[in-house]
Amino acid sequence: MSIDIDTARRVAHLARIAVEEDDLPALAGELSNILTFMEQLNEVDVEGVEPMTSVTPMRLKRREDVVTDGDQAEKVLSNAPDAREGFFAVPKVVE
């Protein structure tokens, strides 16, 4: 599939990318190359191929999804330059 200059201009506009008129032919060529590569990928037969997360089969570690407060408030606030009433104290920045 070939992208013309008008289509490249429209794509740049939709993507909110400022492209000079002189650079539009190069952009059109790059977009055409991307679409050609995508067409090549669509020709690959992936029937029966399972999705994978890694080249080596592994199972992700699982844990129970429980909401906690972390029980480390004092430890976390010990690094704060200024902490008051169990919270980080920061300078006021809005009048």
UniProtKB/TrEMBL annotation:
Q: Which GO terms describe its biological process?
A: glutaminyl-tRNAGln biosynthesis via transamidation; regulation of translational fidelity; translation
Keywords from the UniProt entry: ATP-binding, Ligase, Nucleotide-binding, Protein biosynthesis, Transferase
Which domain of life does the UniProt lineage start with?
Answer: Bacteria
**Name of one Pfam family that matches:** GatC
Enzyme Commission no? 6.3.5.-
Which catalysed reactions does the entry list for this protein? L-aspartyl-tRNA(Asn) + L-glutamine + ATP + H2O = L-asparaginyl-tRNA(Asn) + L-glutamate + ADP + phosphate + 2 H(+); L-glutamyl-tRNA(Gln) + L-glutamine + ATP + H2O = L-glutaminyl-tRNA(Gln) + L-glutamate + ADP + phosphate + H(+)
Example GO molecular function = transferase activity
Q: What function is annotated for this protein? A: Allows the formation of correctly charged Asn-tRNA(Asn) or Gln-tRNA(Gln) through the transamidation of misacylated Asp-tRNA(Asn) or Glu-tRNA(Gln) in organisms which lack either or both of asparaginyl-tRNA or glutaminyl-tRNA synthetases. The reaction takes place in the presence of glutamine and ATP through an activated phospho-Asp-tRNA(Asn) or phospho-Glu-tRNA(Gln).
Q: How does it assemble?
A: Heterotrimer of A, B and C subunits.
* Entry similarity comment: Belongs to the GatC family.
UniProt name for this protein: Aspartyl/glutamyl-tRNA(Asn/Gln) amidotransferase subunit C
